[in-house]
Here is the input.
Amino acid sequence: MRIQIVDAEGSPMFSSGSASPMPKAQEILQLVAENIIDIPNRIVIEGHTDAAPFRSGWITNWELSTDRASSARRILEANGIEPQRIARVVGYADQELYIKLDPIDPRNRRISIILQKPPEPRE
Here is the structure.
């Protein structure tokens, strides 16, 4: 199962160029944590940016997307998700656009939370 937490016009999840989630994003991540806390599946957290060039010193969209995914992980853990459930925290920059026809669409700036399928039992 994939949960997409997406920026919307006028309702950003992160300030431009920042890895600190806005209060609305924190609230959404808290709700996600509450709803998946009792599901035992491992969790993958992905950070994505739009294709607008971002470069501030050594920070690029790669670092920004990874930092945003890490911020989401910290919020999930602060809201009861056990750290050992986190399988991966990954940043994709603008390489997997949500709105492919409009690379700078704000909806491309998002966090994906994936509940992995449990492994098949071995015989």
Notes: The helical segments are 23-36, 61-78. The chain is about 25% helix and 20% strand. The radius of gyration is 15 Å.
